[in-house]
Amino acid sequence: MDATGLTAIVVFGTLVFIPLLVVLIQCFRSIIVVEKGTAVVVERWGRFKRKLEPGLHLLAPFAERPRSMIWRSAETHLNRYGKVEVDYKQEMVTRIDLRENCMDYPFQPVITRDNVEISVHPMLMYKITDPIRAVYETYDLPDCIEKLVQTSLRSIIGDMGLDDALASREEINRQIQRKISQVAFNWGIEITSVDILEIYPTPSIQQAMHQQLAAERIRRAAIVSADGYREQVKTEAEGRSQAAITISRGEQRVAVVRAKARAQSKLMIAEAEASAVSTVAAALKDFAVDATQYLIGLKYIETFLGIASRAGKRVLYFPYDSNFYGAVNSIADPVA
């Protein structure tokens, strides 16, 4: 075989076998296996043709190709200091994942209504319900959703104070989900939930909050101490009052008992004296002596004895009309 024939064979092989090899490779590449939970959007000559469901599919070589879209994935790992770091990877994908997934965004700086800067860590749970819209409605779907979450987050927290933002995570989640759900639905995405994982104020605000918390605790401790002292004073006063009332009631009962005892003693003395007078009167009846005059004379004698016993010298003056001596004589004569 001369050189001309060899050249013809090489040219024939180049013109026949190489295109045939390219066609075979393209045919093999046109065989697509779609896994369960994923979908593939197919275009023919640059126009939408169909959506591939899970299973084995054969595309028309050179005419049909899968539509690719930009997608972003996050990978977490520990750095050399032991802290969690998140790496975001962006790539072009042709298989669209229809399962529920999570978009974890980095900390977003937000300014509250009272001009306090805080860092918010949002997380989004989503599910692609319409792959066709997800492919054709936006160019960079993850970036659009992230920007939508950022603007909604800043709009909602911007209308709140710091205390409300820290205490109203559930309300923030509901408002964000309500604001972005309709827009995301137009992009073929269903927003299942939006969660605020962390809210961090700046270090200066944290220090001020700690000081405020310490002052609040001191104030509460002072209030509790004041309430305790007030209750103590009230209890002691009530105790003293009850003690005074009890003592007064006891003294009242003692006074009543003493008064009754004095009355009974006087009554008994009076009864005894009456009995004595009756006895004396009966004894003196035979002597024609008045018992009253006899008793008066005894009282006079007792009085003189008392006066004489308390001093060395006494001068007594008797009334002119006094019948004392007669009474004494009348007592002394019968006795004699």
State the main characteristics.
single chain; rod-shaped; 336 residues; four-stranded antiparallel sheet; 8 helices; alpha+beta
Structural write-up:
Helix content is 56%, strand content 24%. It is α+β, with helices and mostly antiparallel strands. Strands 2, 3, 5 and 8 form a four-stranded antiparallel β-sheet that branches. Strands 9, 10, 11 and 12 form a four-stranded antiparallel β-sheet that branches. It is rod-shaped, with a radius of gyration of 60 Å. The chain starts with a helix and ends with a helix.
Short description:
The protein is of the alpha+beta class and 336 residues long. Helices cover 56% and strands 24% of the residues.
According to DSSP, the number of beta strands is: 12
Helix content: 55-70%
What is the approximate shape?
rod-shaped
What gap, in angstroms, lies between the N and C termini?
205 Å
Structural Rg: 60 Å
Overall structural class, as computed from helix and strand content, comes to alpha+beta
Range of strand content: 15-25%
- What is the count of DSSP helices, taking H or I runs of 4+ residues? 8
Series of H and E elements: HEEEEEEEEEEEHHHHEHHH
Q: What would the average pLDDT be, to the nearest integer?
A: 81
Topology, element by element:
Blueprint: H1 3-29, E1 31-34, E2 38-44, E3 47-52, E4 55-58, E5 64-66, E6 69-78, E7 84-93, E8 95-97, E9 101-104, E10 108-111, E11 117-128, H2 131-136, H3 141-158, H4 162-167, H5 169-186, E12 189-201, H6 203-284, H7 291-309, H8 324-335
Antiparallel strand pairs: 1-4, 2-3, 2-5, 2-8, 6-7, 9-11, 10-11, 11-12
Helix pairs in contact: 3-5
